[in-house]
Amino acid sequence: MIERNEELVTVFGGGGFIGRYVCEFLLRSGVRVRVAQRNPRQAYIIQPLGQVGRFGFERADVANLESVRNAVHGATAVVNLCGVFGSKMRAVHVDGARNVAEAAADYRIQSLVHVSAIGASLEAQSGYGRTKAEGEEAIRKDFPRATIIRPSLVFGPDDELTNRFAAIANLPVLPVIAAKRNFQPVYVRDLAKAIAMAALEPGRFGGETYEIGGPQVMSMIELNRAILEITGQKPDIAPLPDFAGNLLSRFGWLPGAPITRDQWLMLNGTMCRREGYPVWRPSGSSRPRLPRSGSSGSAGSTRVASSPGAGLI
């Protein structure tokens, strides 16, 4: 049996918002980490998280099978965090997922964790949701015992969404698109811990699909109010009717557009985890909530939905 300090986990997209926290948990567990992405310099932010020799960087593009194989070679586990909007969705979500699964299977990797998205479905209106679902199928075909994780909206330090909302809130009036749509925001460290656990314990989590959301279900307007409370900003809130959001999304190809067409279609799909499934409670720590209606947030557990009979518990 391989000792923990001899294990090597390749993390595709390890320098991104979620990836840096996944790498942090993996390094704390004692394994070595190899960050694979197109521009490794963007991942140098993880260097203070581990000792020299415990991490490395590999230039790789998930759409290029040869580079994927180079990044996977010698690893004991693989995590795929890659996701994009726009014209490269199929190349990254479908072809990239297939390349990662194929390489992992060929090298007989012990564990593969593939991060998809809540709302992934072959019938999804959005190209993002459809290609994520196709990517899941590709993963299951070549690596059936992979763990698939579908997170809801992810928040935390430096996340793009809440910081974008905060920037827009500098205006005297804050327009809110899809004001009544519900989300289940999950704290980035909770999500990262679940991903790291799944990578390190395939015997417990392999072969399952999990949907991860936080303890609060919030509408878009509640989410914006929570961000305003955190930042101390006080613009007037103006919920936009759906026809206005739909119209704006059709101009999403313009630079600086508030929402793309595909993002609008995603908002019309499922953004919360399904009920009636096991709950994962991180032990020994408190996780921040987004404040609601003037109340300050504190600890909350992350809920994980999976196939009945299994769960991150």
**What gyration radius follows from the Cα positions, in whole Å?**
19 Å
Quickly count the domains.
2
Q: Which CATH class of the largest domain applies here?
A: Alpha Beta
In what order do the strands lie side by side in the largest sheet?
3-2-1-4-5-6-11-15-14
Amount of helix = 25-40%
Distance linking N and C termini: 25 Å
The CATH H-level homologous superfamily of the largest domain? NAD(P)-binding Rossmann-like Domain
Uncertain parts: 281-286, 293-313
Could you characterize what this model shows?
With 313 residues, this protein is α/β, with parallel strands linked by helices. The protein has two domains: 180 residues, NAD(P)-binding Rossmann-like Domain (Rossmann fold), CATH 3.40.50; 86 residues, UDP-galactose 4-epimerase, domain 1 (Alpha-Beta Complex). It is built from ten helices and 15 strands. It has a nine-stranded mixed sheet with strand order 3-2-1-4-5-6-11-15-14, with helices on both faces. It has a two-stranded parallel sheet with strand order 7-10. The chain has a two-stranded parallel ribbon with strand order 8-13. The chain is globular and about 60 Å long.
SSE inventory with pairings:
Blueprint: E1 8-12, H1 19-29, E2 32-37, E3 55-59, H2 65-72, E4 77-80, H3 89-106, E5 111-115, H4 127-142, E6 147-151, E7 154-155, H5 160-168, E8 173-176, E9 182-183, E10 186-187, H6 188-200, H7 202-205, E11 209-213, E12 218-219, H8 220-231, E13 236-239, H9 242-249, H10 261-267, E14 279-280, E15 302-305
Parallel strand pairs: 1-2, 1-4, 2-3, 4-5, 5-6, 6-11, 7-10, 8-13
Antiparallel strand pairs: 9-12, 11-15, 14-15
Helix pairs in contact: 1-6, 2-3, 3-4, 9-10
